[in-house]
Amino acid sequence: MTVGGGTPSEHHIDAETLREVLHQPAELAAWLDAALAAGSTDHTALGVAARQLGRLRTAEEHVTRALQLADTVAGRLRLAHVYQWQGRFDDALALFARCRREAADDRTAGFVAQHTGKCHYDRGDWAAAGECFATAVRLRAGVSAELAESSRLAADAAHACLAARAIAIELDRLVPAAHYRAAAAGSGLYRGHGAPPSAPVLIELRSLLAAGPVALPVVRGVYRRYPQLDPAVDELVAAGWLERSDDAVRAGGPCLALLADLRSTMNDAAEAAWAGVPTVPALAGTLDAVARNAVGTSPGPTFDALVGAADYSTPAGDGAPAAVLLDRISALRHHRADCSAAAGGAGAAADRMAARPYRPLQPSARQSLLDALRALPS
Asked: Which of 356, 353, 349, 358 is nearest to 122 (CA)?
């Protein structure tokens, strides 16, 4: 596909960001530079190309000029699209609202609904985005099956982000509570093993260390909010509980018995809290599949390492679904933490990345998963 004047603007829509991904960005940049140097007056093509390349000041200049020459709904859509990419969401939504009022047919109204949804999606308002995409599906159903399907896929992307945000709330409720119960149940565990004062940092490393050496970036990812991590690791190394080599640590001799008791304590606490909940076996199976299928989707190293060590969380075939469930929700919580760290904090980008484990699920399955997590006592 080209946009005016033979612009090399072939692209596809990224399923996560819902933005265009250019197939030939260098060629489009060369075309734009040549057209600008030649004084082209095809302001629409210049503006669209500049936006696709992220040259948003140039895009605004030429799309605005095109709109001054011909005040059309399509022209206002293009300007609103530039505002959206600039992060001027209120300005974009105001223009989209005007376009919606003036749309003359379902095809135009469908484009307006789709682009309004994308503006909400960029902003991180997943519910509003989903409503707009659903409207676009309805309007486009009688116009083009291809356009309707693109709106359906966008609606699914918004739903996955909305579900990921809601699931994160439940993970943040359940995992710390599980650690608190285990700490209460095993209050004398570290003392009984003669462990150094810093030994409690081993609790979230219990499966990782049981599986073998753990890279220090993974250790730091697990404890990214614990400023005393390095002194704690140093103390455990000095006491012989951990061995350090090649930017990794492994369990020393006296540590292995403690790790086994830590795993048992955590698993027993999970069983005591959740074994009577009838949905736990199915939920554990679902989250096990979700976590394993999500390997490779995290922007950090922690999640993949935790999933790789998952089989060390409980004895093989022990039939302890609550223990499996605790392990998988802990791993998925770290997936979210990896995403937040990569995105520079919570927000739309973090939600989009954190939705990756749940995108393969149907919306009804995401909702069932969320309902089951909400039903778990903390």
From this structure: 349
Q: What is the tens place of the pLDDT at every residue in 328-357?
A: 999 999 999 999 999 998 899 999 999 999
What would the two tokens of residue 201 be? 């940092």
Counted residue by residue, the chain has a size of 378
Where is average pLDDT lowest: 61-75, 262-276, 277-291, 303-317? Answer: 303-317
Contact in structure between 151 and 18 (CB atoms under 8 Å): no
CATH 1.10.468.10 fits 11-160, yes or no: no
Cβ-defined contacts of 88-97 (< 8 Å, 24+)? 89/119, 89/122, 89/123, 92/119, 93/119, 93/120
Distance CA 44, CA 59 (A): 9
Least Cα distance to 243 among 233, 251, 253 occurs for 251
Start-end of CATH 1.25.40.10 domains in the chain: 11-160
| Euclidean distance between CA atoms 63 and 92, whole angstroms | 13
| Range list of β-strands (E), the chain | 11-13, 20-22, 214-215, 242-245, 248-251
**Across the strands, what pairs with 215?**
248
* Measured distance CA(306)–CA(295) in Å, rounded: 10
Distance CA 291, CA 306 (A): 10
pLDDT at residue 132 is higher than 80:
yes
> How many angstroms separate the CA atoms of 326 and 174, rounded?
9
CA 304 to chain centre: 14
CA pair distance 50, 61, nearest whole angstrom = 10
- Non-local CB neighbours of 49 within 8 Å, separated by 6+ positions: 3, 7, 9, 28, 31, 32, 35
Q: Phi, psi at residue 222, to the nearest 5°?
A: -65, -40
- Residues 327, 309: contact at Cβ < 8 Å? no
Cβ burial of 4 (10 Å; 0-12, 13-18, 19+) is middle
Q: Which two tokens stand for residue 275?
A: 């074994």
- Taken in order 262, 268, 273, 275, is the CA torsion positive or negative? positive
84 close to 107: Cβ distance less than 8 angstroms: no
